[in-house]
Amino acid sequence: MLRVSLLGEQVIADDATGTVLTRSPRSVALVAHLVVHAGLAQPRRLLAGLFWPDSTDAQALTNLRRELHQLRRVLGDLPSLAVTGRDLCWRDTPSSRVDVREFDVAYRAATTAEDPGEAVAHAHAALAAYRGELLPGLADDWVLAARAELDRQCVELCDLICRSRAGDPAAALAAARRRIRLRPLEETGYRTLMGLQADAGDRAGAVSTYHRCASVLERELGVVPAEPTRAALRRLLARPGPEVRRAAATGLVGRTAELARLGERWHAAAAGRSGIVLVRGDAGVGKTRLVTELAALARAEGAVVATGRCFGSAGRLPLAPVADWLRTPALQRAAGSLDPVWRAEVARLLPAARPDGGQPALEAWQRGRFFEGLARALTAGGRPVLLVLDNVQWCDEETGAFLAFCLGLLPDAPLLVAATLREGTPAPGVAAWTAQLRDDGRLTELPLGPFDAGGTALLGEAVAGRPLTASDREVLHAATGGYPLFVVEALRAGDAPPTESLGAVLRARLAQPGPAAREVAGLAAAAGRDFTLELLTEASDLDADTVVDAVDELWRRRILREFRGGYDFTHDLLREAAYQQVSPPRRWLLHRRLAQGLELLHAEDIDAVAAQLAEQYARGGRPDRAVASYRRAAAVAARTFAHAEAIRLLEAALALVRAQPASGMRDRTEHAVLDELAGPLNARHGYASPHLQRTVERALVLAEAAGDPAATVTALLAVFSSRFVQGRTAQAHEVAERALELLGPDAAAAETGTAHFAYAGSSVSLGRPAEAVRHFALAADRTRDLPRLPVGTRPDVHGPAWAAHAHWLLGDDDAAVASAAEAVARAREVDDPYSLAIGLAYAGVTHQMRRDRTALWAAVSELHALCDRYGFAYYREWALVLGGWARGGEAGLAAAQEGVANLKAEGSFARMPYWLTLVAELAEPVAAGATLDAALAAGEARDDRWWLLEVLRLRAAYDADPVPRLRAAAELARVQGSVALRRRAEADLGVRLPS
Asked: What angle separates helix 912-922 from helix 948-956, to the nearest 10 degrees?
């Protein structure tokens, strides 16, 4: 049986096996048109003109024939699709299931059923089939008409469920919320939900629903809720006397030139020139207000507008603004049309499907695919998209990196990011990604300053609702400096122009509400970010009704605003002022209560609030719980490749641990945190990082002090990787030897295999190829069932790739080529880009040693492409040096020098004599000699001896008498057993020396 999905997801699949037959947008749209007009023959000429309006009649008919041929090839001889030479027709048959038809059948049954219980059951069945709008992303007239009718029917079903008293109250609440999502500007849905919430005893939820309704109407239409809706709120609050009106909102005053410039940039983006516009200025200068006006303009033009915000508190999730954007209903619906591979990437970020984390070092290469999935989801709808990002000065590094990636990936997308940035010291990374976008020509900056005297007066009169005298105008501008926030808050605090500082004005504003509201404002400020009414109720020692009344009062006074189904302060400066008014002992208590409230409210998904919990417990004097939450939050961050955030969280945990009194428990906890920190450090900075070195060395000290052999071996192998990549070859080999000694004959095969791998690798660099081959073989035998080495690589790729170098040194050219080819083939077989990069990089060295430029160029060309796509910085440098040697000439020399310089800058000195030798072979004689001298010095200083034989041989060419140095090279080759390099030295000498 065929399954045709047109609501939300767009796919035609085999219903029995789930096999996708086609996701072609054109094919699915053609079937959808026929389904919508089922039973009515559609003339070919009509369909051709409808789907290819810009083609000639003849070409459009040809296109239709081609599309129909492709469709029938995929679907086979489908009874539901009747095709003649004149027309096409869809007939519903048992051979196919169509979600649109299932919805229609259930809708008709629900609206005609006489029994209320049956009607509700059919309504639920219809809503279950309605998984999203019809063909999201398409805006053809026939689609819009059909979509609007289905949408209307869905609203009707929601109303039916809400009216019924025979159904489940929870289902009725869900239906009411769904109705609001479908008709966000209709007050009926909000009143229905308020009534259902009140009946369920959720007074707080009902009041929040009213606040959301009022905020949406004010933002979208500039009106207040109608009297029936306001009356419903009065009944909920049971307030005697006249209605307490909310403080009036002010429209945008001034800023005409700035708004016009934003509008120009928006229209350029909507036409297909993506970018970011950054409105920057001091706190309270009106940045957010200006961007809000741009959002209203874009929304009025039919664009998708999604909003996100960064917070200054540490309790944040990485990529939280991106997650907020993707939760926007229009983007959610459009993302449903993505291929499953991209939907899976989106699911990494959104809490509906949190995958288990793996090794960060291994998964780092997948970050590009993850970012691409998010970028595709944001632009899947086909409509212009405006992404609002407030408070960029607090933007996490991962969100910034994503923005740079997204705009680079989709330069022609109808996409604009409108961001605000408070002047001052931004968060780490903000300067880097904004500079990158500026250099790419994707960043437009709009500085925003305070109003002049005239603008200040206009705003003051708009807030006061009356003309100001000349004296008042002068005082207002002098006192506020023309800062809009100061003007607005001062006149809301009192009718006269202010005579005090902004801080005093904000304190006066916070003193206006009653005692309960002031107490709730302090609790809300301690949250450090947006919050829900449920959290305040749970954390407060006031009764629930009092908290609800307090939040309503703060909302009416515009101290709080509705935000994403919860609340936030109308300005960050108000939050800061409210927090400052809470005494330190009281803050300690509030943070603990907030943490406990978060745990209770999110018991089924602690991951979503782990970072907030950590921050609240840390400020509430519970370091034990804070450390556990920091570790959990770091694991969540690593799952979305947010390694910078994971590092920050784990370092915060370490600081708390190290502040505790010395004890065995403290040391065990520190060791566990250090062990978790190593992965993100490696993924972000590489094994050569001094930070990683300090981390793994400290973990080793703690493991040895605890007398834990297993932990000591694990730490030794981590130390090995750090020391080896840094070029400390002999020290790396020492820890590999210690690991083998500690493991003993009874240790698990995987553990000893990993130690043998490390021992073999350092043996190659020490100039012991025969020993290396033996240990590589032992490693291969013991790691057959091990998917990953502790360094994050596959043993069945990394092992043979590296062993190829030892085989070649021993003079076994065939074994070297075969081993390198085995590694690359295995990497291709498992379809792992990171493993393939390793296989190609090591194969490139093998081909270079063999002087096979053709094979080398093929390997490094593919390696370059992989590194560019997935951001493999370390192996990119290998590709630069090897590719430069293969290319030759000035361009080749420049590339090789760049690669070596990058390796040195990263602190990656492993194999440095080899890399310098390749540079020397491309350089002029004087420079070549100096470079070879540097290679000799590096090899001796770092015990990197395997290539010193070749360095000596090449350096001899610049000696007046080359024989002594050539004999030294040949003798060293004899000692090391390096047959291949000995042959080269003997060839230059013209003799064959005795073994």
From this structure: 30
